[in-house]
Amino acid sequence: xxxxxxxxxxxxxxxxxxxxxxxxxxxxxxxxxxxxxxxxxxxxxxxxxxxxxxxxxxxxxxxxxxxxxxxxxxxxxxxxxxxxxxxxxxxxxxxxxxxxxxxxxxxxxxxxxxxxxxxxxxxxxxxxxxxxxxxxxxxxxxxxxxxxxxxxxxxxxxxxxxxxxxxxxxxxxxxxxxxxxxxxxxxxxxxxxxxxxxxxxxxxxxxxxxxxxxxxxxxxxxxxxxxxxxxxxxxxxxxxxxxxxxxxxxxxxxxxxxxxxxxxxxxxxxxxxxxxxxxxxxxxxxxxxxxxxxxxxxxxxxxxxxxxxxxxxxxxxxxxxxxxxxxxxxxxxxxxxxxxxxxxxxxxxxxxxxxxxxxxxxxxxxxxxxxxxxxxxxxxxxxxxxxxxxxxxxxxxxxxxxxxxxxxxxxxxxxxxxxxxxxxxxxxxxxxxxxxxxxxxxxxxxxxxxxxxxxxxxxxxxxxxxxxxxxxxxxxxxxxxxxxxxxxxxxxxxxxxxxxxxxxxxxxxxxxxxxxxxxxxxxxxxx
Amino acid sequence: xxxxxxxxxxxxxxxxxxxxxxxxxxxxxxxxxxxxxxxxxxxxxxxxxxxxxxxxxxxxxxxxxxxxxxxxxxxxxxxxxxxxxxxxxxxxxxxxxxxxxxxxxxxxxxxxxxxxxxxxxxxxxxxxxxxxxxxxxxxxxxxxxxxxxxxxxxxxxxxxxxxxxxxxxxxxxxxxxxxxxxxxxxxxxxxxxxxxxxxxxxxxxxxxxxxxxxxxxxxxxxxxxxxxxxxxxxxxxxxxxxxxxxxxxxxxxxxxxxxxxxxxxxxxxxxxxxxxxxxxxxxxxxxxxxxxxxxxxxxxxxxxxxxxxxxxxxxxxxxxx
Lengths: 527, 321
Description:
The structure holds two protein chains of two kinds.
Chain A: E1 5-14, E2 19-29, E3 32-34, E4 42-45, E5 49-53, E6 55-60, H1 65-77, H2 80-86, H3 90-100, E7 102-110, H4 115-123, E8 129-135, H5 140-147, H6 151-165, E9 169-173, H7 177-183, H8 204-217, E10 225-227, H9 237-246, E11 252-254, E12 262-264, E13 270-272, H10 274-282, E14 287-290, E15 297-303, H11 306-316, E16 320-325, E17 329-338, H12 343-358, E18 365-366, H13 380-388, H14 390-399, H15 402-406, H16 419-434, E19 450-454, H17 460-465, E20 469-472, E21 475-479, E22 482-483, H18 500-513
Parallel strand pairs in A: 1-4, 1-5, 6-7, 7-8, 8-9, 9-10, 10-11, 11-14, 14-18
Antiparallel strand pairs in A: 1-2, 2-3, 5-19, 12-13, 15-17, 16-17, 19-20, 20-21, 21-22
Chain B: H1 4-10, E1 26-29, E2 32-33, H2 36-49, E3 53-57, H3 63-75, E4 79-82, E5 91-95, H4 97-101, E6 105-109, H5 113-117, H6 119-127, E7 131-134, H7 138-151, H8 154-157, E8 166-171, H9 177-190, E9 195-200, H10 209-220, E10 226-229, E11 232-235, E12 245-249, E13 259-264, E14 273-276, E15 287-289, E16 295-297, H11 309-318
Parallel strand pairs in B: 3-4, 3-12, 6-7, 6-8, 8-9, 12-13, 13-14
Antiparallel strand pairs in B: 1-2, 1-14, 4-10, 10-11, 15-16
């Protein structure tokens, strides 16, 4: 099938180039957007339709050992439709993202020793260009090196881990907290960023700063991707603000921010601290975020924050699985259901929307559900509908817990996002924040990934649920809901130079503490 | 010559040090040797004529071949009935081998001799010097859980002569799932006081069973037998009932299907069509999955080693090549 395409007559939303609904043609040659009309091209008549770059999911869990465990659990116990939405197979993951108009995604959390597993799963996920983020903030080797005061060695080690595994960026989860949990079950609670980890001089602050340094020195395309300490705890907004401070004006991406945006009432109850957080982020150009929107209904908590997962299990008593992965990290899995009758769940739902609606700069406050933690990625159209219509939000609020809604700032937020705003938070913004130069826009040189929607601005949920065409690298993948083609996605990795010091540290670490020979660690491309 | 370090890692997965002699495929039709093309044509005919085909086995082939086997099943609306399936536990506190190697103490339910003979248990014993054996029955672990409920982690640690923070319970292969489940629940009971994980060792002949579970799970969404219809997988509760053609790929045991296509590292004279492949041969540009989920290369260099010929064969049977 040719990778040359001419798309005619669409109303184009390409925020990266300030195109906001202009009717214009799009030309794709050899899978890339070009300025001039290509010869020997299929023509797609998109008159009356809306065209945007292919969707980019900045944070999801689709191809790891953890999501595979979740598949097994939900495959056994959940109704078929819940299982299919939350923990689809790799094949269905690729198909469903394609059907939704998404062509790029980032697997958000991979342990170094499990990277090969992720590569294989991504290879079996069609239609999606993908990269992954490497869990390093609780790697015992990093903790040990920082404990010895050898920050340079820690940076070298981090560099080698990224290169050897083919990762795209650094994932930070509860920095130091998971290492503390691994060390001592009784002393793992992180109260402040200056708590000592596991009887060392290492603190969450030092870990964050080391990783920020690594990201700078390595010129990583994407900022450190941070799941802050104290996720889900009342009053944790203080920790989130402290994390921003700890980065000392260096780039940071705060992930699933909704889970880190809680204040507390005098009685220890949860309140929304979204306003306080937004004010800070509005004035911190170095900070970007994705919201981790909660969707009422079934979800699966899946996280490397193993102490958090254990706490959730203690609170709910539900089905639960936890894995300690070498001395690198861990993962916990537990199905959950967000109820609109529950105060906390309704508050969480409200906070996510508050964050997106009240943030001045949609380029820095991006849509995610932290799939499947907040809900399935298939919920994006419904969320978009709420963002684009106060009426829709008001109807949703009527069904939510009244106590949570009574003082919710969401009530007074009148903003209704435009299609241009949606194009920012679902493709242009994620691509820019990830540093993916060829994604999220339709300028010359961009990958020929285009999603064409029926122009149903009056019913955005239906519009975004069923694209008219989904085009990837100039090939029509989806035509009116029918999958026409399936092709392997491409992998993107951070360009890291080899460094002998990091390789030697890795070798020595694995020889002393690992469970396989260091030569097994490097992932070479498949032949 | 295979580096010893490679075998050291793979010896925890593979029962024998089978280095590849050649990466060829042999073929027989009704026990008569023939060329591979003819056997492929015959096999494809059998598959096309089958009303209820099933892909079975998968323990004794590479991860790459396992992935292709699922593609084959999807292409022909076949069941996937692997030798290895897994029912997820309600509560589980697992760890990978590297975590266990770095524990302070190992608890080994059961009489002592099993650990002295099991390669993984021996590897653990080399790294973790302190351990003890305790009672192996369901009553033993239930009593311990009751004691933990009364006294907390001290019910466990009082019997251990030195201070410990991280303990691994290492269970022998074949431990009853009820006992396994109780150990995991006990681990969850004490997790706030004591880091305790549970590891069940694989059977010595499990080979790439873990790989089969992982691959079938990610390709179909289920860690269980599945059936394909129109390329989509659902759980299969019927087992071999009604199966008229079994495509046995690296199977531990033959099936009793009326017609069989066997793809294995040893000939099978009773199969309608039989392909002999290297199987889990060390030296192939392919992977196996250790019992804890760690993917290991079968070779030193993926770029120069020969590819697993089972993959290309399965692609041809699926109609992809």
